[in-house]
Amino acid sequence: GNYNATVTVDDPDASNGPQDVPVSLTVGPPAAPIIEVGPSSFSFSAMEGGSAPSNKTLVITNGGDATLSWTVVDDVSWLSMNPASGNAGPGQSDTVSLRVDISGLSAGNYNATVTVDDPDASNGPQDIPVSLTVGPPAMPVIDLGPSSFTFSAIQGGSDPSDKTLTVTNVGDATLSWTASDNASWLSLSPNSGNAGAGQSDTVALAVDISGLSAGNYNATVTVDDPDASNGP
């Protein structure tokens, strides 16, 4: 606090006594550490069944004038920190690595709080929010083009020219596709393949009209991958 006093100098015979001298005293608070943290929040993201997100770093700085003996804890099982405690002199900083383990977590949003404290700090404890978004598992997605085919021929004549089906993977995991049809006069080549995310394969559709009389014939080409989100 602030304290005031007066010093008085006097001599009864002096022509100008007494004389007062003001005295002020300011007593500051006791030396104490001050917790400063950065960043003020963390956000992680991952995919269900995929790899854990990269570790992130929390910086703990002592903004006070006494040694900061800090500890750091969290309130969830999927988050861990290393180290969990330390000492920082005035003006010094320590770093803590935040690690997320997504094993066993389904798709969804998760929240946690990291708490940094020193009982002697003037501003402890300090809470830091942490969010984790787990997206749905990586899956292939089948995209086909064109969406239909039409062939024409003359009975006893030549087979119509082959046509091409394009199989594209618009998902985010490898597409292990198979192609099949339900007609003896139609054949596919190749009838299986693998396409990475964003990649395409082609399938040749060949028609054999031998033995067919004049008429209209219909068939269905089916492309599937059991792991695809939209198959067959």
Walk me through this protein's architecture.
The structure is a single chain. With 232 residues, the chain is mostly beta strands. Helices cover 0% and strands 49% of the residues. The chain has strands spanning 2-9, 19-26, 35-38, 42-47, 56-62, 68-74, 79-82, 85-88, 93-100, 108-117, 126-135, 142-145, 163-169, 175-181, 186-189, 192-195, 200-207, 221-224. Strands 4-11-10-6-8 form a five-stranded mixed beta sheet, with no helix packed on it. It has a four-stranded antiparallel beta sheet with strand order 3-5-9-7, with no helix packed on it. A hairpin with an 8-residue loop joins strand 10 (108-117) and strand 11.
The count of β-strands is 18
List the total number of helices.
Answer: 0
Order of helices and strands: EEEEEEEEEEEEEEEEEE
Distance between the termini: 79 Å
Principal-axis shape equals: rod-shaped
Structural class of the secondary structure composition? mainly beta
Overall pLDDT confidence: 96
- Gyration radius from CA atoms, angstroms: 38 Å
Approximately how much helix is present in the residues? under 10%
The proportion of strand residues reads over 45%
Arrangement of strands in the largest sheet? 4-11-10-6-8
Largest sheet: 5 strands, mixed
Low-confidence stretches: none
